[in-house]
Amino acid sequence: MRIRTMMLGAAMALALDAKADEGMWMPSQLPTIDKALREAGYRGNPKDLADLTKAPLNAVVRIGGGTGAFVSADGLVVTNHHVAFGVIQYNSKPDRDLITDGYVAPDRKGELPANPDYRLRVTVGFDKVTDRVLAGAAGKTGRAYYDAVDAASKALVAECEKEQGYRCSVANMFYGRDFYLVKQLELRDLRLVYAPPRAIGNYGDEVDNFVWPRHAGDFTVLRAYVGPDGKPADFSPDNKPYHPPSHLQVAREGVAEGDFVMLAGYPGITYRHRTAAEFADQIEWRLPSSIDVLKQLQGIIEDQGKADREAGIKYASQLQSLKNGIKRFSGELEGLERSDAVTIRRDDEAAMLAWLATQPDAGALKPNIDEAMKLIAAGKDVRERDLLIGLLSSQTQLMRGALAIDRLSVERPKPDAAREAGYQQRDEELIQSQLKQAQRRYDPRVEKAMISALMTRYQALPAAQHLPEFDAVFGRNASELARALDRIYGGTGMSDEATRLRLFSASSADIAGSKDTLLAAAHALQPALLRVEDERKSREGDLMRLRPAYMQALIGYREKQGRAVYPDANSTLRVSYGKVTPLAARDAVTYGPVTTVAGIVEKNTGKAPFDAPKPLLDAIAKGDFGQYADPKLKAMPVDFLSNLDTTGGNSGSPVLNAKGELVGLNFDSNWEAVSASWMYDPRYKRAIHVDMRYMRWLMDKVYPAPALLKELGVAP
Questions:
Q1: If you average pLDDT over every residue of the chain, what do you get?
Q2: DSSP string, 530-569
Q3: List 28, 72, 82, 669, catalytic entry
Q4: How do residues 116-142 score in pLDDT, each as one tens digit?
Q5: Is 466 considered catalytic here?
């Protein structure tokens, strides 16, 4: 598919003096900052970065919940250990613990299949479709506005996905102001090739998470496969390696302080353009509440895992995700409070509105801004309830599967275009794949304990937030809840894969009449979930209609200030650039930008999370670093620091040098800048990357994989 580079309108024009260390730029924006890129040190042609069919961006992929990159002509993909952790966990058992021991495939036949719902997507198209999306929404409000945008988006997606093997979506930029059609090649057969042991890939675990200095080898290598015909296919022994149109070259030389670096990836969500009221809600309620409930769920999994090792392995990936979320939210809260974000954003918004009052379009924009503010304030009424039922649907395994099966029974009788996104025909294969693997990540005692914790909190909510269906299923007090969970999980057959797949294919009538206790509970809860969804869509429809006025004012005001203007991150491909940079964290505390293996030894206690494997410690003691050693430090580098603008979803993003060679893999942010998803502060914002020299050394000297190094083009 030929990519059309869409030039942005005047309202999205970029300040010429935008700082290099701030900005998650859309590829189509990069030619407009050509001068800044070149002055920062980039040696390539910035115009090539706007063409997704050209290297290097056509080698950058979305994989799992993060980012990765092709690094060989035979489909090798490198990403973070924690991005591929679910794949490692899926292939682990008590008698084959790949989490602890790591894995090196002896040959291609020994490469292990990923979990069935693990996906790799390559963006091949990114076209502006604002007029088509909004054409049917004119004059509508609330749910009608939402439905018009939704219908237009589904039509675009259906048209795009007529070409087999592609996954398409419509991305909302600037909160309803612009829309882009994203086309991605989707590969379904991914295999585990090389994973370091946990004590390398996650050295330091939560103690070091979001903390610099770091000493983690947070990388994993997988391979993408396609069918014999070269098209995307499910796992099969007959499949062959995928041949990407290009791949990144792993650099033989490393980086040093002050060197240019650039990152491409799929940052999840940022909120830098949100209102002052939303900043206040995030700091005063949402973050503290989320931390509190997630810590409770973490404690349940940890306690159950200590009593039952198999349960611990089953929930290892989910536990890691919870711990990461808790620490991220905690750092975000601390950072926003330290920066006095509520006051700063409130004052900034007041100044913007004062400036708007002097502009000719104030009369058209201000009423919509005022209406949006009222809607945002009203959203507080049910926020506790919505947080809890959202976690019930996302943090469970069998309950989530039962809810998905029942929702499919609601959606299947509808025309496909009228079905809820996520439950259309295009989504059924992914739902089925998730159902197939559920028992590998499920233990009834753990799930019952997690639901008990969530519903106990729900039972304590004011009566106005209660949903009759939830009260009927789970009861109104602790004893009723305990009896309900014993009955629901004691009478279900959904822990059996064949039963889940049979129910997945069952008719709506069979689902409604099912005697399976868990499915019956999900069926009873569904009307409440549909009402909550309808309320949410009505509110989102009005905000999608009203927020563009706020964004138009904010963009104009930012340009007046000479500040960078780029859309908040939304899991679409973005590029950041900057330099390898030290960190002055606080008064008299300054950190260098590169760590070495000496720090691994200094931190090592022999106990998790600082239990470096003996082969690693022996190799460090031997000191055979050769070509991998940093010429200035005269030591073996592990991780390095830059001022690249990143957020969640950038995990696994390739870090390139001025020549476009792969020098690092992004995997974390520093504690002082976790709050950058809401507020950017160039003094503290840093990104943490695995140095590719460390990965190569491990593959050469510690857990040897000579054939893999040869395929990567960096044979010793």
A1: 94
A2: HHHHHHHHHHHHHHHHHHHHHHHHHHHHHHHHT----PPP
A3: 82
A4: 999 999 999 999 999 999 999 999 999
A5: no
